[in-house]
UniProtKB/TrEMBL annotation:
It comes from Meiothermus luteus. The record marks D86 as: Stabilizes the basic form of H active site to accept a proton. It comes from the Bacteria. It holds the Pfam family Pept_tRNA_hydro. Signal peptide: none annotated. This is Peptidyl-tRNA hydrolase. The gene is pth.
Amino acid sequence: MFLIVGLGNPGLQYARTKHNVGFWVLDLLGSRFRLRGKAWVAEAGFGGSAGLLIKPATFYNASGEAVAPLARFYRVPPEHILVVHDELDLPPGRLRFKAGGSAAGNYGVASIAQHLGSPGFHRLRIGIGKPPSPEEGAGWVLSGFSPELQPRMERVVRVAAEAAQIWATEGLDACQKRYNGLWVA
């Protein structure tokens, strides 16, 4: 069994923000989400592999409160969890798969690592670019994409949804080889 977790903030005011690209990907992968505890959950099956799609109903920085109880209940080890999230250190149009490691300042990823007791889960990082200055980070992630960038990000999200399915069926190595050098124009 696998878990694919999309990070984002609940509420319409956040729906089209950069911080919610993880939710956008999960919305392409599933449509029958039901509230279970602190998360919206949908069943998923890709190429014979079964799992769950999870959109935390908590705010982004508390995502671990939603993910860890489901991982424990279904006995899913960290290496069978993919967290899809926005990434300031990648430009828009880039995707990157990663296994474990530091949260690199991403409080949602840090929350999941803390609540799971391990940073060993996999990540699909979606580039959103850097803010004009470090002090503008919170405002940057909580703002939308420019009208010029919106079509590219819609293409990136479609590619990320495809990549998440490949991860569930073929694994992390196949995804790193196929997507880590990809540029979505």
